[in-house]
Amino acid sequence: MKAKRVRTLRGQISVAGGATTGRKSLVVADGLINYGMKINKFQVWAESPADTFIAILSYETIPAGSGMNAGDNRQFGWSVGNGSAEIHSQFLDPDHIINRDMFLSLVDSEPGSYNYLIEMQVYELSDDEAIISIIKETSQS
Asked: What is the pTM of this model?
């Protein structure tokens, strides 16, 4: 695995009024499985600091009614805000490589807009490393 440049993704995701979920596709498979990304930093914060949220980074969309589940290999990043501007928790699986799709899902969240900032390192993968990464992300789907 050979490290390349650092990239960032930033933007907003919304939860519509009357709903508790929001989803956004951040990376779409381009067929180049020998290039992957490792998330180094994952931050989510509400536009209104009083809003509570649960945000999940995953290889697939997370269905409504699902929650944070470290036993689900589709999920590799989690962020929680409890309605206080001072208290946010972020967790990342340090052993993951994204070489197909990546999604940001908000579950059990209040209606509103949420900002995200994701820092990732691009890696060049051997054929074996790419295959292992794909197997890992789908092994418990």
From this structure: 0.83
